[in-house]
Amino acid sequence: MVEDEASIREMLQFNLELEGHKVEVYSNGKSAFDDASEFQKYDLVILDVMLPGVSGLTICEEIRKYSNVPVLFLSAKGTTQDKIAGLKKGGNDYLSKPFDLEELLLRIKVLTEGITQTASDIESLNIGNKHVDFATFEVIDHSSNEKHVLSKKEIDLLKLFHQKEGKVVSRDEILDKVWGKDQFPTSRTIDNYILNFRKLFESDPKQPKFFHSIRSVGYKFTNSDKL
Questions:
Q1: pTM, rounded to two decimals
Q2: Which residues contact 61 (CB under 8 A, 6 or more apart)?
Q3: 132, 203, 218, 220: least surrounded by Cβ within 10 Å?
Q4: Tens of pLDDT along 165-188?
C-alpha cells in the first residue's frame, strides 16, 4: 500500500490484516517508485495518486514495466477523467476518497480472488469436444479418440487462459507468466501459439469460438461450449 496520509494508511493496514492479508506500506512516492520492480511479488498494490516525491500514476507506469500485479488506485481525485487517466496508466480499478470500507474490501477480494488457485492446481480442461490432460500434456478428441501431445509452453498458456476465462489477457501478461523474465520471445510468438490452438480446438479457425483476438491488447478465452 502506497499512501501518504497516516490516518488512512493505519486504518487500512489494520482492517486488511484483520481480513488475513499481510500488508507492506510506503508513505511516499519516491520509495515506492524505486521498489517498483519488486512489486511483482505482491498480490495487489493499493496506490494513492497524489503522493510526495512521485505521483501514483508514474509509479503505476513503472510497475507495468515489470509486472501485471493488480493495481487499485485510491484517490481524492475522483472525476471521470481522473479515473480514466488511472486506468490508462495500467490500473485495474479506481476508488475515490472518501470511500466505504466494505466496498474497498469487496473490490480487493475481486482483484485477488483468483490468486490462491495456482496453475499447478488445475488438472484438466474441456474445450469443445476435446479434453486436455495437464498431467500428460495430451489432448483427446472425444469424437474420434485421436490424441495430440502439447508442449510445456502450450500447457502453461492454456492454464493461464483457463484461470482468466472471460477476461482479456494482455500479451505482456502472457510473456510475464508463461515465458518469465529471463526469456525474450516476441508478441509474434504468442500469435503463432494462438493460431495453433485455433487449428486444434476450433471447428472453424477463421471464426473462433474459444480463442479471441482483442486488437492492440491481447487475447480472451471463452469456453461457452465446454462439456
A1: 0.52
A2: 89, 90
A3: 203
A4: 888 888 888 888 888 755 666 778
